[in-house]
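Run log, item B.
One chain of 163 residues. Sequence copied directly from the ordering sheet:
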Amino acid sequence: MSAVETATPKSRPKAAPAPAANVFEMPKFEIPKFEMPTAFREIAEKGIAMAKDNYDRMKGVAEEATEVLEETYGNASKGCSGYGLKVIEAARTNSNATFDLFGELLGAKSYAEVVELSTAFMRKQFDTLTVQAKELTEEAQKVATETAEPIKESLTNAFNKAA
């Protein structure tokens, strides 16, 4: 054996690339099946029943609160509209009185008559404004009371249920 044999490395066969979907698949684990003890099952069933009961109660409370809010906003809206109408009526009355004064002042023949008309207007207007302020205050109190009433009733009912 005189000839020198050169060893050629053996080429290994290349493996086919794995499909991309297999790389990201979750490994499959099998959960062993066993019977749940009766005590645990009863506790779980009681817990589920309590959760359903609490959900039903909370749902009822939320529906009641929604009704109270709707009623409150309705009362507030009606009350504000009524109050706004009273303010507009007072402004109309005051404007008409002022225009009437200007007409009378244009017909005045002397400075003394102008002073007399102006003084009488101021006295009458002071009385009118006093009455208007009283009416607007009463209307505002009425609106506040009617708006707060549903909330007050709801809280009273809630405390009575809790007691």
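Observations after the first pass:
- Residues 43-158 form one domain.
- The mean pLDDT is 83.
Flagged for discussion on Thursday.
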